[in-house]
């Protein structure tokens, strides 16, 4: 690992000031992604600004929403009584990610910004537009088994690896950020971005901005949520495909529904059209199949990930069955 | 031991000086280094080393297995390397060094974490427990006893991490069934495949209620 300066800050303003004056500075929270990438030489900040002492460690039920601070540990959020009561899908998704040790350190802010697990992004001898803009994409013609089937570009076919982000997307979370120009709120659907011609940018967060927390609006989904994650082993592996489902069920009628997919795109993939199709319909396997077919419209596979074209709809149908309790 | 003492002494000498002082001295040393005699003298006094130490090292006060340490470390030093290389606490193992195997698991303020992905400087003021600090003198911790009884290891490389993780797994309340134990122990990989016996050891300790 290259050496770097380390600075502990105790106010958001100090963190923003550090980022503003030094373009090569990076924030560090749990360190579970950044330190790893620094060991591989994928990232080499000259200064680390430690945000662990900022007071963004609260979880608060507010009148119509749930607030979770940026430095709350994933394990703490996943086990929090209010999260379990009001947003169980978020807890399920977080518990499906990483391991107990990692979740004890990983933070909400760090998880939102964790970088792709594309092997060519990690391999500093390979071309990668995300790591070195303009160098090319080795995954396009390479071993692209883990890669995107939606929204990719000729510059990058990497996927966002986070489980938490899939749930936040289904739940319409808003990300709270603070920067030199003040505070702003970014809907999670606009926070992560598609690669286009700038895959080096994972999100719309400005380099000088920090995440202070996130907010999830109240909903009527708590009784029927499922996070189904399919991976190469039963635990402690990144998703090949994951599906987050939240249903507001009136008997067997779907009053409202949210659907998002992980492991398929550069950002968590919200399935709006499938939601529209199912809204107001009966929770039946037939309807689930129709929704899954619609959800797969526009999917495109590469040499090694064609299996995802089948695995994705199957996982979606299974997740819908589990969430709704529909058996056949 | 001698080396350690010298090092500590040097650290003490340095501790009163700020980074800026040393940057100032740096230009002085560059200047005197122009004369061969001064250069030899500077190298005799190890001024260069002291200089880079002072620029790169940060104070760290950390309690490890009940013992307080006041150290200076490079920001890039991981907690794992601090334990193993500097403090010679080699019970904590380095498997992957990338957060993927769990061999480096320790307790930080009572919570299990991977020491390979922790910067030592981020743990200023923390209390660390490693496998060396788990037993009560010569009396093994119940989890250590149970691993021996149930053959919870073969080569033993993953074992310190497994045991630290297993103790935390029970403390967290995540050892209520075999499935739950397996899920919450999944961050500890055992290349020898001792999993079934590890689960049995944890079940026994949990049921025995000793911890
Ligand atoms: C072996 C392994 C397996 C894993 N498996 C999974 C998995 O299955 N599913 C999954 O979802 N994740 C998985 N992870 C990833 C893990 O969830 C992330 O590493 C973690 O969430 C990152 O959080 P952190 O706080 O440690 O981030 P850090 O490493 O501290 O930071 C990550 C990034 O976020 C930035 N950042 C942090 N906080 C802020 C803030 N407040 N404002 C602005 N920027 C900020 C940092 O500058 C950095 O760029 C795995 C990780 C490992 C090592
Ligand atoms: S050495 Fe830390 S997880 Fe493998
Ligand atoms: S006992 Fe050999 S790796 Fe676990």
Automatic annotation (TrEMBL), chain A:
* Gene Ontology MF annotations: FAD binding; oxidoreductase activity
* Keyword Flavoprotein in record: yes
What UniProt keywords apply to this chain's record, in alphabetical order? FAD, Flavoprotein
Q: Could you tell me which Pfam families the record lists for this protein?
A: CO_deh_flav_C (PF03450), FAD_binding_5 (PF00941)
- Where does the FAD-binding PCMH-type domain lie? 1-221
Recorded superkingdom: Bacteria
Identify the SUPFAM superfamilies for this entry: CO dehydrogenase flavoprotein C-terminal domain-like (SSF55447), FAD-binding/transporter-associated domain-like (SSF56176)
* PANTHER family according to UniProt: OXIDOREDUCTASE (PTHR42659:SF1), XANTHINE DEHYDROGENASE SUBUNIT C-RELATED (PTHR42659)
Specify the protein name.
Xanthine dehydrogenase YagS FAD-binding subunit
Origin organism is Pedobacter westerhofensis
UniProtKB/TrEMBL annotation, chain B:
Record Pfam families:
Fer2 (PF00111), Fer2_2 (PF01799)
The UniProt entry, under PROSITE patterns, shows: 2FE2S_FER_1, 2FE2S_FER_2, TAT
Domain 2Fe-2S ferredoxin-type: from-to ranges = 58-134
> What start and end residues bound the annotated signal peptide?
none
* GO MF annotation: an example: 2 iron, 2 sulfur cluster binding
Keywords (alphabetical) are:
2Fe-2S, Iron, Iron-sulfur, Metal-binding, Oxidoreductase
Annotated PANTHER family: OXIDOREDUCTASE WITH IRON-SULFUR SUBUNIT, OXIDOREDUCTASE, IRON-SULPHUR BINDING SUBUNIT-RELATED-RELATED
What is the protein name stated in its UniProt record? Answer: Xanthine dehydrogenase YagT iron-sulfur-binding subunit
Please report the organism this UniProt entry assigns to the protein: Pedobacter westerhofensis
């Amino acid at each position: 690992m290259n050496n770097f300066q380390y600075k502990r800050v105790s106010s958001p303003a100090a963190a923003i000031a550090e980022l503003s004056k030094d373009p090569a500075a990076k924030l560090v929270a749990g360190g579970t992604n950044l330190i790893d990438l620094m060991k591989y030489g994928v990232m080499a900040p000259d200064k680390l600004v430690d945000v662990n002492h900022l007071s963004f460690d609260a979880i608060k039920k507010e009148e119509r929403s749930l607030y979770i601070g940026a430095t709350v540990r994933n394990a703490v959020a996943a086990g929090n009584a209010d999260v379990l009561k009001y947003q169980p899908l978020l807890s399920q998704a977080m518990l499906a990610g990483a391991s107990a040790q990692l979740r004890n350190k990983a933070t909400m802010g760090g998880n939102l910004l964790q970088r792709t697990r594309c092997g060519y992004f990690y391999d500093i001898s390979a071309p990668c537009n995300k790591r070195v803009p303009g160098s090319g994409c080795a995954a396009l013609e390479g071993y692209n088994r883990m890669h995107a089937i939606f929204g990719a570009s000729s510059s990058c076919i990497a996927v966002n690896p986070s489980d938490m982000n899939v749930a936040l997307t289904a739940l319409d979370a808003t990300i709270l950020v603070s920067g030199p120009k003040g505070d702003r709120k970014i809907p999670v659907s606009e926070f992560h971005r598609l690669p286009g011609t700038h895959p080096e940018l994972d999100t719309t967060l400005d380099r000088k901005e920090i995440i202070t927390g996130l907010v999830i609006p109240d909903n009527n989904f708590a009784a029927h949520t499922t996070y189904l994650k399919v991976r190469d082993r039963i635990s402690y592996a990144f998703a090949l495909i994951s599906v987050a489902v939240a249903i507001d069920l009136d008997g067997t009628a779907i009053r409202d529904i949210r659907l998002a997919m992980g492991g398929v795109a550069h950002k968590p993939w919200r399935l709006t059209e499938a939601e529209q199709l199912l809204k107001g319909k009966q929770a039946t396997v037939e309807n689930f199949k129709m929704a899954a077919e619609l959800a797969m419209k526009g999917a495109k596979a590469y040499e090694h990930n064609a299996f995802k074209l089948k695995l994705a709809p199957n996982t979606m149908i299974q997740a819908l069955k589990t969430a709704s309790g529909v058996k056949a | 031991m001698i080396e350690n003492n010298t090092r500590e002494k040097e650290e003490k000498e340095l501790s009163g000086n700020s980074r800026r002082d040393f940057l100032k001295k740096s230009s002085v040393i560059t200047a005197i280094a122009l004369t061969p005699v001064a250069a030899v003298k500077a190298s005799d006094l190890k001024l260069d080393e002291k200089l880079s130490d002072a620029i790169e090292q940060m104070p760290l006060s950390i309690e490890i297995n009940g013992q307080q340490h006041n150290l200076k470390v490079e920001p890039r030093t991981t907690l794992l390397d601090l334990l193993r290389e500097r403090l010679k606490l080699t019970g904590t193992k380095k498997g992957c060094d990338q957060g993927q195997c769990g061999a480096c698991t320790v307790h930080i303020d009572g919570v299990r974490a991977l020491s390979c992905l922790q910067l030592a400087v981020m743990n200023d003021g923390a209390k660390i427990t490693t496998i060396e600090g788990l037993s009560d003198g010569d009396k093994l911790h119940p989890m250590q006893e149970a691993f021996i009884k149930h053959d919870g290891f073969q080569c033993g490389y993953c074992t310190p991490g497994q045991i630290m993780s297993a103790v935390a797994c029970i403390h967290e309340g995540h050892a209520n069934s075999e499935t739950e134990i397996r899920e919450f122990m999944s961050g500890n990989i055992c290349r020898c495949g001792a999993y079934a016996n590890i689960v049995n050891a944890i079940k026994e300790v949990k049921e025995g209620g000793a911890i």
